Amino acid sequence: MIEHGPLLEALLAGASICQVTDEEAFRRLQDEVVREELNHFLRPLNRRLAQSQDGSVFFLAYQELNSTAREHLGKEFKQTVQSLLPLLEWMQLVQEALGRDGSLTAGDTIKFQEFALRTEDNQSLRQRFNQLAADRFFKSNSEQLDQQLKQVFKRLKETGYLQQPHKDRQYYIVTGKIEQLIELVRFIKDEESLPLDDMPQQESMF
Questions:
Q1: Topology, domain 2-62
Q2: Which pLDDT tens digit goes with each residue over 147-162?
Q3: What is the DSSP code string of 7-57?
Q4: What does the alpha-carbon distance between residue 181 and residue 179 come to, in Å, rounded to a whole number?
Q5: Domain boundaries, the chain
């Protein structure tokens, strides 16, 4: 189990393991024997290894939904909702600006300059992005689109939804945390019957 120590520490700290964030760890988690060994260690902690429906990301979930787990999930849900709406709006803006047919998924590439130019040239997208950047999740105080864009992408990197492979090249790769976020809300909604009526435009994503 010692060889799995760093991986276990990362998972227990809340890491989302996908091919983008940690290709080697993601490859190891494809091995059923490794998953069984990790779950054996995690069982006394009431945790288990879980993955998204499409298999693009691994993360920890509770083994049993006891009162402690439900209390923790309730707090996590409140924190998630604060970031969920702006994140879904950002995903829709990227989809519309870049002319994508479907929503963002792990491994998708976003070219910063392309997104910036198309947002700047479209008055409707620009107004929506101005409102999005000012959201408390993204924390932009600037009225300049260029600064707003930089702050939004910076926050998305900080929170693990994007990775920038090369600091001197302005393109980003979507991580599996996007899938985990959506599935977390689906799970809590199903288990706790918590209403999500304030996000009708994104209802199809759930």
A1: Arc Repressor Mutant, subunit A (1.10.10)
A2: 999 999 999 999 999 9
A3: HHHHHHTT--EETTT-HHHHHHHT-HHHHHHHHHHHGGGTEEEEE-TTS-E
A4: 5
A5: 2-62, 77-205
Common-topology check for domains 2-62 and 77-205: yes
This model's pTM is above 0.85:
no
Residues 6 or more apart whose CB falls under 8 angstroms from that of 19 comprise 26, 56, 106, 107, 176
Span 122-134, pLDDT tens digits: 999 999 999 999 9
Give the type of residue at 57.
Answer: V
Pair 145, 130: CB distance under 8 Å: yes
Q: Is domain 77-205 given the CATH code 2.60.40 in the classification?
A: no
Q: Tell me if residue 195 falls in helix, strand or coil.
A: coil
Whole-number Å distance between alpha carbons of 29 and 17: 9
